[in-house]
């Protein structure tokens, strides 16, 4: 069956199913937790909030911000991965595998070493700068004039640069006694998400995702090859640079909120392309929904396992899938 030529009705059905999955997963995540809270209490907390009710405070101040944070990070990482895979034409690319996450984490460690009290906008800015530095290093090392972004070379460069940046983060954490912060950034978790972070993170991620959707036509053309894109009048350098900067911004926001989480940006774009084809006008929206569903679901499982790291839960799926892609030569499902 050729899934690359499905009609709009097929995409609509898939997208609606994905949205329903996200809503169900989000609701289950709100219900599940150490405190036994029933559905009526949750609805009452949302529509008739009583600040004196402890259960209402748990719902409004802890669970809902945490779940929205997981949704936001899932959207950001998945769309970032789709953008990176498109412009590099490397299906093994992922924000965590090409140095974006480790670069952002290093800059956050440096920021906390300078001052332990940092506003969230500054964290986003420093995370973006770190992601840009780490990603640029990997892309410069992994790209060749002969065959562009070779998948194996890019992944090897990403592994080397990520190891270097992670070691630097650990050294800074040890020297400035930031061990607790380092554990959080390396393990990944949304338990500390606050409404103040969301008030800033949601608009930024929403704007960037909308820009990606507006660029989806150019990304589809660029995915056909650089020569084809130039032949169709596309400014390849501007599209590639803009897409990478937007992807780095999304990665920086994600690390600022939850720390380092790998494989979301690798797996979800593959699943989306398998379901709706290679048209990025369909891939980007579906990737955003499925990415949110994955991280919210993983956080729910982590919570039920006694606050296990979200990154570990996702890695149980991501590592085998990554090895599977390597065995297939980086080709989509």
TrEMBL record:
**InterPro entries recorded:** ABC_BtuC-like, ABC_transptr_permease_BtuC
Could you tell me which SUPFAM superfamilies the record lists for this protein? ABC transporter involved in vitamin B12 uptake, BtuC
**Subcellular localization(s) per the UniProt record:** Cell membrane
Gene3D superfamilies documented for this protein: ABC transporter involved in vitamin B12 uptake, BtuC
Q: How does it sit in the membrane?
A: Multi-pass membrane protein
Q: Name one Pfam family in it.
A: FecCD
Name the major location.
membrane
Q: Where are the transmembrane segments?
A: 12-30, 68-84, 96-114, 120-142, 154-178, 198-224, 245-271, 308-326
- Keyword DNA damage assigned to the entry: answer is no
Q: Does the keyword RNA-binding apply?
A: no
Keywords from UniProt, A to Z, are: Cell membrane, Membrane, Transmembrane, Transmembrane helix, Transport
* Family (UniProt): Belongs to the binding-protein-dependent transport system permease family. FecCD subfamily.
Protein known as: Ferrichrome ABC transporter permease
Q: Which organism is it from?
A: Oceanobacillus neutriphilus
């Amino acid at each position: 069956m050729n899934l690359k030529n499905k009609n709009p009705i097929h995409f609509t059905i898939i997208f609606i199913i994905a949205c329903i999955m996200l809503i169900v997963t989000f609701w289950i995540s709100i219900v599940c937790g150490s405190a036994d809270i029933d559905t009526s209490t949750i609805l009452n907390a949302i529509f008739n909030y009583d600040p004196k009710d402890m259960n209402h405070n748990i719902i409004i101040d802890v669970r809902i911000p945490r779940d929205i944070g997981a949704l936001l990070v899932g959207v950001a990482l998945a769309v970032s991965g789709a953008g990176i895979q498109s412009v590099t034409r490397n299906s093994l690319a992922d924000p965590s595998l090409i140095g974006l996450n480790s670069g952002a984490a290093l800059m956050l460690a440096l920021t906390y070493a300078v001052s332990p009290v940092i506003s969230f906008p500054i964290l986003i800015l420093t995370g973006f700068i770190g992601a840009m530095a780490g990603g640029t290093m990997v892309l410069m090392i992994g790209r060749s004039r002969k065959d562009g972004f070779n998948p194996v070379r890019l992944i090897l460069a990403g592994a080397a640069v990520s190891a270097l940046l992670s070691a630097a983060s650990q050294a800074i954490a040890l020297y400035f006694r930031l061990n607790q912060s380092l554990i959080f950034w390396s393990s990944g978790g949304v338990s500390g998400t606050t409404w103040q972070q969301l008030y800033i993170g949601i608009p930024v991620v929403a704007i960037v995702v909308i820009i990606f959707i507006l660029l989806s036509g150019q990304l589809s053309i660029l995915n056909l090859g650089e020569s084809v894109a130039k032949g169709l009048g596309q400014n390849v350098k501007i599209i590639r640079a803009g897409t990478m900067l937007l992807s780095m911004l999304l990665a920086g926001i994600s690390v600022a909120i939850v720390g380092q989480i790998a494989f979301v940006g690798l797996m979800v774009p593959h699943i989306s392309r398998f379901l709706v084809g290679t048209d990025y006008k369909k891939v980007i929206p579906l990737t955003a929904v499925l990415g949110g569903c994955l991280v919210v679901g993983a956080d729910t499982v982590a919570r039920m396992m006694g606050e296990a790291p979200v990154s570990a839960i996702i890695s149980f799926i991501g590592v085998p899938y990554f090895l599977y892609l390597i065995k297939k030569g980086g080709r989509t499902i």
